[in-house]
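USER:
Class, as today's exercise, take the chain set out below, and explain how the chain folds.
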Amino acid sequence: MVVCQMSRALRILLIEDHQPLVRALKKGLEEEGWEVDVATDGAEGDSKARSASYDAIILDLILPKVDGLTLLKQWRKQQLNTHVLILTGRGEPVDRVQGLNMGADDYLTKPFQFEELTARLRALSRRGPQIQTLRIYDLEIDPLNRTVQRAGKTIHLSPNEFAVLQLLAFHQGTVVSRSMILKHLYDGQDGSTSNVVDVFINFLRTKIDKGFDPALILTRRGEGYLLRGEE
C-alpha cells in the first residue's frame, strides 16, 4: 500500500468558471504550498484531468461546454479515480446525493469557508492516492512514483518523455495530436512548426518498443500518435 506523504505538496486541479473565485482559490491554495492547475470550462478540465496526475480535483457543477456531473460520470466509468470534491451553489440534498452517487468523494456548497475547503482536501489526501498503475499489454506506468516498466524491465525516462507517455496512456486507443502533446508539455505553444514532439516520440519508441512485441506507440499520419488499444 502506498501511503500519502503529507510533507509532499498536494497537486490540485481547480475546474471553475467564476474568475474572481478562481483567482482567490488559486492564490489561497498556493499560499498553503500546494500546486494548482486551473480549467475554466468542462472541456479544458476534462483534458487536464486525463493528462496529469492530481491529488484532488475541485469540480464546479455548472460549467461551460461540459457540466460537472457529466465529467464525473465519464471519469468514473473510464476508471479515472482521482479524488473529486464538488464545489457548487447547488445545496439541495438531492444534488448532494446525486453528486456522491456519481462518484464524488466530497461535496461543499457555496458560500464556504476557505479553511473548511483546505481541511476537506487534506482529509481526502489522507485516504491515500487514488491514482492507479496504468497497464497496457506488458507496459506498466506508475503516475504517482513516475516509474515505467515493460515486461518487468525498468525503463528510465526523462520528465518530458514520461509526460508524453502518460498523456498517450490516459488516451489509450485514441489519437492524440502533435499540438495537444506540445501544449501538454509547454502550456499553450503551437506545435505546427516544431519537431520536438517527433523527437520525444522517437526517444519513447527506442525505449518502450525496441526489443519488445508488439509495438505500442503508433502513428496516424496527418492526425498524431496513440498508444495501442486493447484488441
Summary: The CA atoms of residues 148 and 218 lie 18 Å apart. The chain has eight helices and eleven strands. The chain has two domains: 11-126, 134-227.
